[in-house]
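Quick look at the format.
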Amino acid sequence: MGEGIRRAALLAAIGFALGACGVVPVPFLSEHRGLTPHPTFKIGAPYTVKGITYYPHIDYAYDQTGMASWYGEAFQGQYTANGEVYDLNQLTAAHTTLPLPSIVEVVNLVNNRALQIRVNDRGPFAKGRIIDLSRRAAQLLGFERNGMTRVRVRVLKDESLRAEALAQRGIISDSENPVATFASVPEIAAIQTAATPAPRFFVEAPQYHVAAGPVSTQEDADRLRSQMIGSGYRDARIVID
């Protein structure tokens, strides 16, 4: 039984309701279990969990809304489905069918916060949930305490292709992609209006580009977003830089 399926079985058994930056070559030792990551690019064969069969496949047009949950300590330091090591302080996620790794943009539709996140695991296996995030991602998206939130998940094709190429070389991330490196609360945030990965503020008209920020705290970012909405930019949202 593969690592992803073992993880699924554990999820079912305990009824879990909660669910790049410098080059990181192999080996990289987990501080929790001493495991050595062996990242690979993986699509995988169809598999069945709790009576439902999932069919992993490449889908660069993936763009779905649904519920997100998060998973944390119970899986800390364990292998993910593609051979990486789960760290609840990194920006990673589990998905039932996307290739591993994939890079997705996740937007919390409750507060409009957005993050780019690395998908490197399988799950969630609960009805109605479309993605299972790390605890750090849940913190930055503002739903750690609630446990779940409604999100939009969109695959970023170019970023995913780069992550795939690196994984095929046994590399987790590179210096041009700060997707999976946050370990503490960021000090800078920016505002943007469109569902794009760039950390800027965009007006709908394509010839205009308006930036607001950076700001030093999350509270200031929320306040600035409210001001922008009041000024007529209804799609303004917070993006962590």
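Next, a different chain entirely:
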Amino acid sequence: MKLFSDTRVGALPLKHRVVLAPLTRMRTEPGNVPGDLMVEYYAQRASDGGLLITDATAVSPLGIAYVDAPGMWTREQMAGWKRVVDTVHAKGSRIFVQLWHAGRQAHPANTGGLTPVAPSALRSLEHAAIRDEYGNLAEAELVVPRVLEAQEIEEIVEQFRHSAALAKEAGFDGVELHAANGYLFEQFLLDGTNQRTDAYGGSIEKRAKFLFDTLDVVVGVWGPGHVAVRISPSGTYGTMSDSDPHATFGYVAKRLNAYALAYLHVIEPRIRGIEERESSDSEVSSKDLRRHFNGALVAAGGFSRESAEQILVDGHADLVAFGRLFIANPDLPERLRTGSPLNRYDRATFYGGDARGYTDYPLLARA
């Protein structure tokens, strides 16, 4: 199978093309620090010559959308991630950290009471995962965000640079900027959420300025071949919309060619958040962006063994990221390689909690 042929992301050789997608699991210790449970989770999913991408990892307290999501702004968080990285490397895998700012998808309950920020004062109609007064997981409506001043945007760019430097110190193989799923980069990119009239709004070029300013500093920390970007060009999660997504993301994909990225990570149209839906030929897919982007392309979104192989054979992607199947099958690459049966995932344990539904799925040898 092409799924199990050698490839590269940037300068990094890989022995197969099965990627662990970035998945929010909400299992950190106090201070948004990765602990023993997260070390075990990633170690279980490491395979010789494979690529893992971490949970969305916030660059500041204001960037956290979900309670108990990880961060990368303190040295304690960096040290926790270093333990993850060292364990993954010991098993022969590569690992990228996904750096993230939630923007208006954050909630004051998770930001120390601070009002979330965004390019414009438009509220998302999604809900936040918080803890209620009794310490239990609960959902809360999002609030109207505060509009970012231009100077504050520059400060967030610096937060990404700082987090990228900490990630490098932790030993990661690279960083992925989370410009998908209705978070801050995408809030700037799409004209449905960006009503600014300054240097960060209006034309596609101006709406993309925040993303590319951040890319400039992160590539400055890491150099070529170690930075990636994730986008969801047909996504609507987060109450997102754009008047011409083909033009917006075609522009972004073409311009990314100048950065010698490790890869471009594209969420396929059939996925909205964690749900699958009907898609149409008019939506923007990996196949469309392949015409604009010259580097390695990772496709994500509800793939099976057969559909993953097909998108590689068709040449529309170079690697395939798996989410829900990787949650339930720590040894997913081996199961896909051998055509072995797959464990069923338990959606009720996706977010928050303990080892149940996180590190207790059986491996193939004892399935």
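The chain has one domain: 2-366.

See the schema section for token definitions.
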